[in-house]
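Input sequence (88 aa), recorded before submission:
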Amino acid sequence: MDEESLAVLCKALAHPARVKLLNYLADYGTCYFGKLTDILPLAPSTISQHVTVLKEAGLILGSDDNTRTCYCVNAERLEELKEMIAAL
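Predicted structure, C-alpha cell format:
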C-alpha cells in the first residue's frame, strides 16, 4: 500500500463540503461549476478551493471548453482509494 497516496486522498476528503461534492458528482455524472455552486451554501470562491483540493488529489477531473469547465469523478482514482482503505 502507498501510505503517502492514501494520506493525500484522506486529506482531500477531510472536509464535509468536499465529500458532498464528490458524492454529488458520483451520483450526477458530470456537471459544470455553476451547478456545483447550487448544491452547497458556500461562496463560489470557497467551492472553487474545495474543487481544487479534489482535483489535486486526483479524485475529480475537469475538462475545459471555451468558457467553462465540466467536472466528473475520476473512477480509477476512487477505486484506488477504495482498495487502499480495504487493505487497512
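Checked by second reader. Residues 59 and 76 are 9 Å apart (CA to CA).
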